[in-house]
Amino acid sequence: AQSVTQLGSHVSVSEGALVLLRCNYSSSVPPYLFWYVQYPNQGLQLLLKYTSAATLVKGINGFEAEFKKSETSFHLTKPSAHMSDAAEYFCAVRDNAGNNRKLIWGLGTSLAVNP
Amino acid sequence: DTGVSQNPRHKITKRGQNVTFRCDPISEHNRLYWYRQTLGQGPEFLTYFQNEAQLEKSRLLSDRFSAERPKGSFSTLEIQRTEQGDSAMYLCASSLVEPGGADYEQYFGPGTRLTVT
Q1: What is the pLDDT of residue B1?
Q2: Mutation test of the interface with chain A: which of B108, B112, B113, choosing the one with the most A Cβ atoms within 10 A?
Q3: B101 or A63: which carries more pLDDT confidence?
Q4: What whole-number distance in Å separates Cα of residue A8 and Cα of residue A21?
């Protein structure tokens, strides 16, 4: 069975500081991994995805993530936080074991950006 | 492309009442997913459709829940005899899976927030 663990339910950074949101996965098959962002009262927006190509993936809004098989990790980073980055961030692994391709989600990390 | 839309955005209902939500996916997408998200949790898979066929239902989907996608376009999710534990955000997502198996990411709607009093 596949699963995702997001370490840290709340992360607080200062504006301009590095953002690091942690995600570890468990998968019996090569995983497809995703980061989504959710702003208050809005749906989930895809930030970036890993689908077995380049291990360093660049996404929207300056975010990037690196797939590390040896560490079973897919941490999300951004060099310099903006106030507008404050949101809930979800890491997800796609169920590639069957045909449904559903997403299996972590519990989310709430990012606060302080001025 | 107007994205995935869901209606209503908010629904307050009394315990025991029936509710129905609608999802309109991106027009060319053949897959449609329903997820449920409770406060402080990540989304949980409920069910999905390939065109009009409902191919899988989660054990989370009790007999009070039913979903349809009659013409392979929009979908409805109905909850009968609502319970307070049904209070959650119900999310719809759509994606395109090509005949050869290649597929693309899931696009999410804004969700329908259900409150059962």
Answers
A1: 55
A2: B108
A3: A63
A4: 8
